[in-house]
Amino acid sequence: MEVLETRNNQDTLKVKLDDRELFIHSSYNPEREAQQILKKELTEDFNSDSHVVFFGLGLGYHVSQFTKQYQQNSYSIIEPSLEIFNVTSDLIQLEDVFNKNVVHLFVGEMYSITQMVNQIYKESTTKIEIVILPTYKQLFSKLLSEFLSESKNKIRQHRSMLATNYRFQFNWIENSIKNHKRVINTPNILDDDFKRIFKDKPVMIVSAGPSLSDDIESLRYIKENCLGYIFSVGSAINTLVEYNILPDAVFSFDPGEKNHLVFEKMINNNMDSIPLVFGSSVGYQLLDNYRGPKYHFITSQDYTSRLLLGDQVNVDELILDSPSIAVMTFQIVNKLGMSPVIFAGQNLGYLYNRRYAKGVEYNFIDSELTEQEVSRAEDVKDVYGNNIKTTMSFNMMRKSLELFAEHFKGEYYNTTKGGADIKGIPFKTIEKIIKEHLRKSIDKKTWPSNLASYDLSKQEEKKKELLLSYESYIEGKSRLEYTFDKIKNETGKKKLEKLFTKIDDELTRFEKNDFFKQFIVQVIRVEHDLLIQKINKTAKKEDTLDKKKDIVQMFKHYLDILQKASNKLVEVAKKEAII
């Protein structure tokens, strides 16, 4: 690496790479080149809310140009070479490159690509733009390719998470309130009595993937000879009913309004002897419709049970909300001590151009894939090492299973022929599983049905505390609205600054209120997170009237959503006698 003077008396860097010599910046006019880089790299959608990631600092010409031209925007810098950074530190005024808007600086190999991407995209709701120093495309091609790939995946995951939160944020709370009466009147599947029943017993977690049809007769053999428990998850119940195989239990947690339709065939055929194990935030319609025995587990989305049952809800026994019921059931059977845990029908990819196994047909979603769905699919390795098509949601399920397999470290197998390979859950055909691991019958004991899982002596006291918290929330909401109205009508800069501080303090107090914290904010979590991010960004602005404009706009939208959410939630809470 060599520092050279350009024709217009600026510095540039020349780097020798193998037999080539590359200039990090123009050897003629680095500053003009910096302007051209920004013009080329920043998209048409770039605006004052965009966060810019600079891949390559070099001598900082393009970053310095950016900080002068876009004084409102936040940015981060990745400089893969410690040597280049050291030279830069000696040559330039760092104040020209790093101002109050810089969020992250990554130098050398202190962080992995995954760590950098996670830091940059953490809880970000603003648009992120990537500006690449041209020479770095050659110097660090492999690193750059990995960064762009990880960034793409992170953006897709973030959008999926936002979409899930936005879609279900009211359902989770509404269901947990409406289901509370059933939670306190049904046994918790993770009670010690159940751990004694299930410990060290083999279990098949049966999903509705297209390969399930290939394992049906083997599952029938397992069932008829009591070789292990068969737990049906999600839509698999329809295939099992189609082939007249009754599982030992069905598991469900989907908070959606159509979830009960998954079990329509079972309910309509009066198959009410099968235990239903439900997540406490499951769509309440299923519990209204199913007449058979019910058992529950408390999910991480159920704030009602955690508030009203207090320390009776063991945090270690909470089942973390996951991309699929198979993943949540995997958590449960591990906590019950069941072994080995065997998956069937867990394709996590497409087979025979089908979404589900035979016997799973709905009028609200096709079991057959469209050409467009197949064309949009991603490639992933199957259990034989071949490429199969999958989706982002299937990939998230697979990665979740891999994380829990690594966490629990039990004995696991995957019998899904042609399914996606799941790290930590090796493939073995169901025929081999029966021959090698399910050689003797097990004693399937009767499940306790009238087990009292909770002491309800303090339930009414908890509800009174919640009512007081609700009344305090109403008062805090009124103060927030009053201060907002004063900000709207105030023009004096000094008074506005005091009002900004006041509304910020009131929002902080608001966030400490139990009713708001455990219920309201969970219903508007996407909008609330967005508000906090916008407040933090607006606080950096120096012009008071500009701040006022932003605050009025953001709080008007937020208070409207807050009012609508409060009305809906309070109506449900009062109807269910929670407050």
From TrEMBL:
What residue ranges are annotated as transmembrane?
none
- Domain Glycosyltransferase Maf N-terminal: from-to ranges: 34-99
6-hydroxymethylpterin diphosphokinase MptE-like domain: residues covered: 175-351
List, alphabetically, the Pfam families matched: Maf_flag10_N (PF20157), MptE-like (PF01973)
InterPro entries recorded: Maf_N, MptE-like
**Name listed for the protein in its UniProt record:** Motility accessory factor
- What species does this protein belong to? Halolactibacillus alkaliphilus
What's the source species' lineage?
Bacteria, Bacillati, Bacillota, Bacilli, Bacillales
